[in-house]
Structures are given as structure tokens and as C-alpha cells.
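Progress against Task 2.4 (sequence-to-structure conversion) is shown through the following example record, which the project officer requested during the mid-term review.
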Amino acid sequence: MNTRNSKAVNASRVVMTQLVLPSHTNSLNSVFGGTIMSWIDICAAVAAQRHSCMDVVTASIDELHFVAPVYKGWVVNLKSSVNFVAKSSMEVGVRVDAENPKTGETFHTASAYLTFVALGGNNRPTAVPGLLLESPEDQRRYEAGKFRREERVRRREILKAQK
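C-alpha cells generated for the chain above:
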């Protein structure tokens, strides 16, 4: 990992809150999965932009799991952080929790890992700062992100070979 010009994980963490409105829900009064996906993408993009200080584009979303429904009138809390950095790409993890404002109960709703690529002035991929790991949790997330990246690269190479 490049420690020169590195940034701490905490420097790019994002906490985002959304209120589930009627326009966000389906006929069951639960939020559309696509709405949650959009919020996840935005929350992750802000973390990637904060880390790189550049424009970023979503390269992939993987491991998105919906664990529980979220209903109209509830609050959605999203937390994201950069887990792993390669040359021009960053893996960002997002955790989504729902909050029932009438009971105060909160619970895990969804999680996802997204890959973003930083773009330079010519809209081409460009190098990003390294990731400064300040805690055992940062190190654990970095190692897990590194493994997931290796798996994504391996799958991409298999798909190329099949063409």
C-alpha cells in the first residue's frame, strides 16, 4: 500500500440519512430496492470523491444483499468508507440501517461493496492517494477489500477468456 500522500479512512467516511417518502415506495409501502441502490451509490461516491479529491465513476457494485424491508415514514441511515485502494480504483463499503421512528428500533437493512475509478482532467483513470490504516478494523477491511478485488479481477479475466 502506498503511504506517500495517503489519507486516513476516517477522512472520507460518509454518514447519510434519508426519509422514506411515498414516492420511494411500492404497493407494499416498502421502499423500492432501486431507491436504496441509488442512495448506496451516492453515499459511496461521496466517500470515493473525498478520498481521491477527483471526479469518480462507479465501475461495479457487488455483494449487494437486501436483509430486511424498510417502510414509508422510516429513516434510512447509510454509512460508507473506503476499504481498499489500488492505482486508480477504490473499493467502498456501504452499510444501510433502517430506523422505525415510532419505536426507535434500528436494524441492518442492506450492505454493498462498490468499486469507483478516479478520473483525471482528461476523463481517463488517474492515480489516487494510498490508504492510511489507523486501526485493526481498518486493516481488516483493507485485507478483505484486497481479496475481493483479486476475485473481481479473476472473474473479469475468466469472462474475457470466454469471448
